[in-house]
Design brief:
By secondary structure, the chain is of the alpha+beta class. 43% of the residues lie in helices and 13% in strands. Strand 5 and strand 6 form a beta hairpin.
Length: 159
């Protein structure tokens, strides 16, 4: 399995365990890296943007490596979802629930909330509402003070 190590100093050096595939080599060349046969590594003088290149290499080599636990349900197979400054980490199931929720029009969302919870929530944040929706789809709470429900809402709001 292809892995790599890197060193960031006056220059950036990346050493692979084996010859990287063509798409990885193309990415390195596109970002200004050069192959050094004597040292057996890829290097570049300027350090600006090195972290983004290294993160991009990781995504190329391991495209479905989880980024962390899902913010909504805690599943360890969560992935960053590019949704702006506060990029959430969600598993595929929770992401599908959020997308389904976002596809609803405002009236359908309000009607669903009124039917399932009995009142409109104080927090109109999409993740908070999606957490309520996700929890209700998994197991509808009988008591609004249910601890698991509160935990799902807290995780959705980042607490």
């Amino acid at each position: 399995m292809l892995t790599f190590t890197y060193r960031i100093g006056p220059d950036v050096q990346i050493r692979f365990t084996e010859k990287p595939p063509a798409d990885v080599r193309h990415c390195l060349k596109a970002h200004g890296f050069r192959w050094s046969p004597q040292a057996g590594l890829w290097w570049r003088r300027k350090v600006i943007g090195a972290a983004e290149v290294i993160a991009g290499l990781r995504r190329l080599i391991e495209p479905r490596k989880p980024d962390g636990a899902c913010w909504m349900c805690g599943n360890p197979d969560g992935y960053f979802r590019n949704e702006g400054a506060a990029t959430p980490v969600r598993c595929d199931e929770c992401q599908a629930i959020v997308r389904h929720w976002q596809a609803m029009d405002a009236r359908t969302q309000r009607d669903w909330i009124l039917r399932s919870q009995g009142a409109v929530p104080d927090c109109h944040d999409t993740q908070m509402i999606a957490a309520r929706y996700a929890y209700a789809r998994r197991a509808t709470p009988t008591d609004p003070s249910d601890i698991a429900y509160e935990d799902a809402c807290a995780r959705a709001c980042g607490f």
